[in-house]
Amino acid sequence: MQIAVASGKGGTGKTLISGCLMKILEEENAALIDADVEEPNAGLFFTPASLERNTVHRLVPEIDPDACVLCGKCAEACRFNALVVIADKVLVFKELCHSCGACAYLCPHGAIKEKEHSIGVIEEARLPGNGTLVIGRLTVGEAQSPPLIKAAKQRNTQSAVRIIDCPPGTTCAMIEAISDSDYCILVTEPTPFGLHDLELSVEAVRMLGIPGGLVINRWQGEEKELTCLSRKTGFPILACIPFSKELAQTYMQGGEALEAFPALRSILKDLIKRVKEELS
Amino acid sequence: MKEILVISGKGGTGKTSISSSFIHLADNCIACDYDVDASNLPILLKPYDLLSFDFSAGDTAAIDSEICNRCGLCADICRFNAIDSEYKVIPLFCEGCGFCVEICPVQAIKLRARSSGRWFSGLSRQATAVFFAELHPGEENSGKLVAKVKTRARKTAEQDKIPLIIADGPPGIGCAVISSMVGVDLVVLVTEPSRSGFHDLQRVSELIRERSLKGGLIINKWDLNPEVCNEIEDWAQENELPLLGRLPFSVLIAQSIANARIPAENNELREMIFPLWEKVIEQLDGV
């Protein structure tokens, strides 16, 4: 079972919820995958014994100047303007390259080879309770996160439960993170910003045909709004997490949220039960 | 003309509360929202007389099933798994690279321009002009849409001699943020005193250092965790990142946002935020 934890707006509590779900499910051979590779935070709430690090690459073209005859076929084929032919050589703009491989395949002189360009690392650790933590960490300055998200999600495919902590927003990175999931939990807060962005993320989840439900974080008793929200989005409300200053402060310190706010454990256990029911 | 960009790395630290307040406090400015997939600034600025424009970046492949001989070559070479088992293109996965078009032996595939989103310009009581955009869910090219919004805003600023652009930026450090930074005179980093806020701040400030941009730091809700707040301040000093100020946690800010109001419209909050705004102007060497 793969559950994506996503939101439109940032800072609504995705990492809090995915991290706590992981702590509750740890003994069931669970894996937590931090797919918010631009700003991965899930690792801050765990203290793994040892960390295994692997570099992730994507392919970019490299021109063999001896074989290249400056015919310009590669630049013509590249829709992203990543190759430019000048008087005596071909320039490669790695940051514009989408790694589609067309240039290398189409070069009539075999002058292009694809070489690996590092975009970030995947950190992997066994947790004391037998779960696994996988963190994708994009290199600062690298613009494209989807290839790294994809690579992070390819780890630990054997785990019985996989929780994906997703990036905010609704762009291609969020789609990459939630795709192939059995269920998507959308976390929101009851503010105009939270609700506006939630509607956009519901649309994205729908596009992929993934069933989803809502978690309202920092809930302060808004009842009418919730019913309205559920009707508007067509997604059930799975849980409401009341606003708690103790919880906020503990979380800020990187402490144990489940201890600071014990009610959270039963709320999230119910949430897991709800998701399992929705899926059966 | 000068441009200020407000970013944070982590989402939910208060970028929009602060950028909207600066827009309210500035005498004459253009307001921009570069968070093109979840744009919130218009909720507070309530722009009117909106003009809306289609934004198209890149293409999507389309296979003509009548010409297609189902040889499968396109599906084999596509690195984005955008061609399904019935030889139809999955638009969500297609990046428009055109590799399939080039190699199709029977020329059954064509590229079509795809609509990636819309961008808008409007007027507001708070700013001389407002620019923002909406990327369609699942689209890439958020960086290009940011560039579009930025180009239009800068052109308007030049034509109408507006001295300042204040922009609310996207979260993260990826393509949209990198595109937001182009030509900016001051990057205002808004953080909160949490482990994750601090962690993300360090990554985003590395990005501005790499690009030799001038930065300034605001610690929002500082009193929720004075210990981490002190750590952040020490770190900022070591890294020569000027502290523009701290803001305490305030129920009034939460109420402003709940009512879709700009925080600085409230007198008490205005007094709290104004000193930060003065620091911003100081860092800009005036406007």
Question: How does this model look, in words?
Answer:
With 280 residues, chain A is of the alpha/beta class. In chain A, 33% of the residues lie in helices and 27% in strands. Chain A has helices spanning 14-25, 73-77, 102-106, 146-153, 172-178, 192-207, 224-233, 245-252, 257-260, 263-279; strands at 2-6, 30-34, 52-63, 83-85, 90-92, 112-126, 132-138, 161-165, 183-188, 212-219, 237-242. The longest helix of chain A has 17 residues, at 263-279. Chain A is elongated and about 70 Å long. The termini of chain A are close together. Chain B has 287 residues and is of the alpha/beta class. Chain B has two domains: 2-46 and 124-283, Rossmann fold (3-Layer(aba) Sandwich), CATH 3.40.50; 58-115, Alpha-Beta Plaits, CATH 3.30.70. Chain B has helices at 15-25, 41-45, 73-77, 99-103, 142-159, 175-180, 195-210, 226-238, 251-258, 267-283; strands at residues 2-7, 30-33, 48-63, 109-123, 129-135, 164-168, 186-191, 215-220, 243-247. Chain B has a nine-stranded mixed beta sheet, with helices on both faces. In chain B, helix 8 (226-238) links the parallel strand 8 and strand 9. The longest helix of chain B is centred in the middle third of the chain and has 18 residues, at 142-159. The chains are: A alpha/beta (280), B alpha/beta (287). Chains A and B meet through helix 3, helix 5, helix 6 and helix 8 of A and helix 4, helix 6, helix 7 and helix 9 of B.
Give structural attributes.
heterodimer, A: 280 residues, alpha/beta, Rossmann fold, Alpha-Beta Plaits, 2 domains, nine-stranded mixed β-sheet, two-stranded antiparallel sheet, 33% helix, B: 287 residues, 10 helices, 36% helix, elongated
Secondary structure tally: strands of chain B: 9
User: How far apart are the first and last residues' alpha carbons of chain A, in Å?
Assistant: 11 Å
Query: What global shape of chain B is seen?
Result: elongated
Largest sheet of chain A: 9 strands, mixed
Q: How much is the average pLDDT of chain B?
A: 96
Top CATH class of the largest domain in chain A? Alpha Beta
Percent of residues in helices of chain B comes to 25-40%
What's the average pLDDT of chain A? 94
CATH topology of the largest domain in chain A: Rossmann fold
Oligomeric organization of the protein chains: heterodimer
Name of the CATH first level of the largest domain in chain B: Alpha Beta
Using only CA atoms, what is the Rg of chain A? 22 Å
The coarse overall form of chain A would be elongated
